[in-house]
Records
---
Amino acid sequence: MVISDEKTTKKHPEKQCFKKYRIDVRMPNSKRITKTFFRKYDADKFKSELFIKKNKILNTGIYINDDIAFKDFASFWLKNQILGRKADKTEQCYKSCIKKYINPVVADIKLRHISYHHARTLECLILNSGRSTVTTNKILRILKAILNDAVKLEYLLRNPIRGYPELKEEPRNLNFWSKKEIDLFISKNQNNELLDLYLITLNTGLRLGEICGLCWDRVDFESGHLIINRSLTRYGLRNTTKGHKGRYVPMNHIVRGLLKKRLIGPNKGFVFSSQDGKPVSYEHMTQREFKKSQVDAGLDKIIRFHDLRHTFASHFMMNGGNIYTLQKILGHSDIKTTMIYAHLDQEFLHQAADIVMFG
C-alpha cells in the first residue's frame, strides 16, 4: 500500500489537503492490479480480497475470474453452453426463466457475491408470483446449473448455493384413459385420418415430436423396432430427442400392422405427412386435431396429446410391466422420472384389496 498526500496548489486553491491510498498487487498470471482509494478502510478491504484471491490461485493453480456480473455470465452461458446443445423449446424456457425471474434478483450481482440469501429471495419471488413449487424448483435448478458451469469454466471455486434444498412438491396428477375410454375413442374415430397416429402413440408412448418426426428410415420391420433419435419441433426436424439419447421402441403386432398398411413403395419420407410430403403439424396437433377428435367421440375426459404417453405407461404397469423396461421404452435418463407411473388406478386397487382377507 502506498500513501500519498494531495496538497493545495496555487492553481487549485480550493483543494484541501488529503491522503490517497494506492494498492498495487501483481497477480500470479503477471497481471498487475492498481487501484486508489480515499479511505484506508476501503484500501485495506480491497487489498485483503486481492490477497485471498491470489492465494486461491497459488493453491489451486486456477485463475478464478469471479469479477463478472451474473447477467453477463448468464448471457455467455446461454450462448456457449445451451445453444445447439439443448432442444429449442428448452433453450427458450431457460431464456424466459432467466429474464423473468433470475435476473431481477441477481442480474448485477458479481458471481462471487451470490449466496443462499439470493436463492431464498428468488424462491420467494417465484412463489409470490403464483407459480407452483414444481416451477419454483425448476427455476432454482437452472440457477444451480449456471453456477455449476461457472465452477467448471473456472469463474468460481465452488457453487455458492450448492445443496440449497428444494421445496416439497405435490404428487403429480397424471391424466390417462381407462380401457373403456380408449375403446370409445377408437370406435368413434374410425374415419379419422389421424387415427393411425393416435393408435401408434397409444401403443408406444412416443412423444408428440417423436411421432410427428418419425420417418420410414427409422422403422425396422426386420428387428421389430422403431429407432427414435429424431424429433419434430416448431423449428423443424432435429436429429435428437428430448433426452438427447436414441432408443429402440418395440413394435407390437398392432403397430407393425398399421405401419405396413401405410407403407407404399420405397417411401423415405415422414410416416405421417400431407400429400406434398410435409409432416403433420406439430403445433396444431393438440388443440386443432386431437381435442376435436375427443369432442367428436363424446368423451367426458378431455386430455392433452402428451397424456397418451401417460396412458401407455400407466397401462404398461397395470398389466404387469417392469419399471426398468418402461424407463428404456420411454427414454427417461433418470428412473425417478419413470417412477411416477408406478401407480395403479382405483379399480385395480380395489381388486388388489381382496387378495388378502382375514376373519
Note: The CA atoms of residues 45 and 119 lie 26 Å apart.
---
Amino acid sequence: MNASARQLALALPHRTALAREDFLVAPSNAAAVAMIDRWPGWPSHVILLVGPGGSGKSHLVEVWRQMSGARRIAAGKLSPIDVPSLLETGALAIEDAPGERLDETALFHLLNLAGQQGARLLVTAAAHPASWGVALPDLASRLRAAPAVELGPPDDVLLRGVLVKLFADRQLAVDEPLVTFLLTRMPRSLDAARLLVAEIDRRALEERAEVTRNFAARVLATFTAPGLFGEED
C-alpha cells in the first residue's frame, strides 16, 4: 500500500455509538440499565453507579445525558465556586469519584442544592463511598444513604454481543469461531473490545486483508503487553 492510501486508511473516522439502543443488556449490567431507564422517576435525587473500569459506566452516563440534558464533570474537578452553575440544567453527572482530589465541601453543597432544587445527580465510581476515605461526616452520611446500582465485569454473553455488534457497525464480516477465538484471549473489558475491533479494522484497511482468524491473531498479539488497553469506564 502506498503512503497516501495508508494515510487514508488510518484517517477514516468511525462514530462511537453511545445511544441507548447501542447498549447491550446482560445480567452484569441489568440493574444499572433499569435504573437509568427509570429516570426521572428515581428513588432519590442522587444515584451512585458503581463498577470497575471497562464495565460501561461512561456509556450509561452518556445515555442518561441524552435523556436528561445533564452536564458532566470529573469528580476531581469539583469546586465550591462552580456549584450553582453545575445544576443549571437540573441534572449533573459526576464521574470517576472520588478522583485524585475530591473537594468534599463542594460535593456536600452539590448534594444539598440538588435536594433543594429537585435536581438529579448521577455519580460514577469504581467502588462504594465507604472506601473513598471521606472525612466530612455529613457528606459520608449522605453518600451512604444514596441508592447505589452496580455494573459487574462484563461476562461472556455481554462481551460476545459487544464484539458482534462492533464488527457489524464497521461492516466487517466475521464468523462465530473468530468471535470465540477473540473472546477467550482478549482482556475482559468493554473498552478492550472497542480498541481491539478498531485495531483489527484499521489493520485490515491498511493491509487490504481479509479478517480471518490468523489475521486477528496477529493483531491480538500486538495487544498483549500490559497497559496497551486503557481501562476506561
Note: Confidence is low (pLDDT under 50) at residues 1-18, 225-232.
---
Amino acid sequence: MSDLKEFKLPDVGEGLTEADIVRWHVKPGDQVTVNQIIVEIETAKAVVELPSPYAGVVANLLVPEGATADVGTPIIAVDVAPDDSVAPRAKSEAEDLVPVPPANSAVEPGLHGSPAPKAERQAVLVGYGVKLGSTTRKARKSSAQLAAAAPAANGSTTGRALAKPPVRKMAKDLGIDLAGLTGTGPDGSITRDDVQRAAGVGTVGLVPARNGVQTAATVTAVPREERIAIRGVRKHTAAAVAASAFTAPHVTEFLQADITETMTATARLRALPEFAQVRVSPLLLVARALIVAVARHPLINASWDESAQEIVVKHYVNLGIAASTDRGLVVPNVKDAHALILPELATALARLAETARAGRATPADLSGGTITITNVGIFGVDTGTPILTPGEAAILAFGQVKDAPWVVDGELAVRKVCTLALSFDHRLVDGDLGSAVLRDVGAMLTDPLRMLAWS
C-alpha cells in the first residue's frame, strides 16, 4: 500500500522566505535513502544541498528546476511504503535533520593549503518545516499557480515542454511553439540553442560577394532583447546595496601610494617554504595592512545599531573579500583574520577565492563580516567608490598596480603605484578617522616593515 510523504522546502536557518530550485539529483522512480542529497537550492546567500528526510521511491518532483518556491511549499513526494528494499523512517527522525553545505565548501585547508581530512557527511536540515511566527512570509502559492508559473518538472503530468523560464520567454518573443521542438538539454529539456535553431529555419540571407558571385546562407535569428529573472544572490545583493547606499551616508577618500616595496615583498614571500602551497598576491599584504590599521583605529571596525541607538565596536576582524561570480557579487569573509599569522591568512584567502569562484560559498562564509576589501585592480581599473557592505563601517578598494613616474629622494623614478579608496559610514566615522586609516594602509604598503612596527 502506497504511503506518500511530501518534503516541504525547509527554512535553512537564514530567516529567508523563498529559494530557487537549481538542480534535482533525482527523478520520479528513483529509490532514495535517508540523508541522500536530492536537490540543490539557491537562497539569497548561497547554494545549499538538501538531503532527503525519507527513504522510499520518488513519486513526483513538485517544483521544477528554475522555479522559485516559498518556504513550506512541498517540493517532492516520496512513496515510503515498506517493501523488501526500502526501510521506513519515522517523521520524528526526519525532523531532526539539519542543510548540507556543498562537499567542496567543507574543506578546511591546512597551513600550506592541503585539505584537512573530511568529516563524514551528515544531513543538516535545521528547523525542517515552517516555524510559526519566525518570519513574515508571502501568501502561499497554490499548486495551480505553481503549475502556471513554471515549466513542468521531469516526470510530471502537465504535458508541457521542459524548458526554463528565460527559454520560454525567448520562444514566445520569436513566435516558436515549444511543443514542436526536440530538446537537446539535460533530460530532453529545450535550450536557447534549440529555440534559435528553430527560429533560423528558412531564414535566408546573402553572403557578401566573392569573385563576383553571391551565395545564399541560413541566418540564425537572434532576439533583440533578453530578460533574465532577478533571483538568488543577485536579488539579495541588489536589495542590500540599495539599502546600504540610501541608509548609510557614504564618504569616499582616495590615496595614491608607491607600493614598489610591497611588490618586492610579495615576490620574496612566494619563495619562502611556508608559502610553497598557496598563491601569494599583493592582496595578502593589503589585507594584513588593513588588519593592522583596524588595531590602531578600532572604531573603523564597527557597526551602527539604529534600534538600540548604539555604535557596536568589534574587537575582532572578520575580513570580507568582495568577489564577482556568475551568480552575482558575494562577500565571503575570513573569520578572526586578526588572529591568523601570514601563512594562515594566505591560505584562508585562497580558500575563500576558490569557493566563491566555484559558487560554493556557504551562508556561514557570507555572514558576520566586519570590514571589507574589494580588489577592483583585477579588472584593470585604478579605483572606484565602493558601497559599504550592509552592517559595516568601511570598505577598502585596491586599484590596479601600474608603472608610473614618482619622485623618490628628490629624483624622478618609475615606481609601482596604485590608488586606494576608502568608503566609510559618516554616521560613526569622521573624516579624520577615515583619513588616518587610509593613510596608515598607504604607509604600510609603501614600507611593509611598518606592519611589523605597528603590529
Note: Residues 84-158, 201-207, 214-218 have pLDDT under 50 and may be disordered.
